[in-house]
């Protein structure tokens, strides 16, 4: 594939036709090749679904009922601390668990 001197939107009709002529041909399998290991890695990475970065052993989504007033307070504090609600709740659980462990 040849590099062009200017971007497609800036080309006139004749230049654009010449630059894109390769796309008018039928797809020829003989021109293909095996992917290199690096290309395979890049392809796998591109196909991956986006998501949250894995922390610890991953996450488990659960449904928890919380009193509305407590949830509002939690959201206000999370906003004040510039953190996410889930992180704030996790911090609270860690604090309670470590306190319980210290008692036993």
Folded structure, characterized:
The mean pLDDT is 88. This protein has 104 residues and is an all-alpha fold. It is elongated and about 75 Å long. The chain has 4 helices and no strands. The protein has 2 domains: 10-47, no CATH class; 68-103.
**Poorly predicted runs:** none
Share of helical residues? 40-55%
Rg from C-alpha positions? Answer: 28 Å
- Average pLDDT: 88
Classify the beta-strand content into a percent band: under 5%
Main features:
mainly alpha; 48% helix; 104 residues; 4 helices
Task: Give the SSE layout.
Layout: H1 13-19, H2 37-47, H3 68-80, H4 85-103
Short description:
By secondary structure, this protein is an all-alpha fold.
């Amino acid at each position: 594939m040849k590099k062009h001197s200017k971007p497609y939107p800036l080309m006139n009709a004749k230049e654009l036709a010449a630059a894109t002529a390769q796309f008018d041909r039928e797809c020829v399998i003989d021109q293909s090749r095996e992917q290199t290991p690096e290309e395979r890695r890049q392809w796998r990475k591109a196909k991956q679904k986006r998501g949250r970065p894995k922390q610890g052993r991953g996450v488990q989504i659960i449904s928890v009922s919380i009193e509305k007033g407590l949830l509002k307070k939690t959201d206000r504090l999370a906003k004040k601390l510039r953190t996410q609600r889930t992180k704030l709740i996790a911090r609270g659980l860690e604090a309670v668990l470590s306190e319980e462990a210290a008692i036993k």
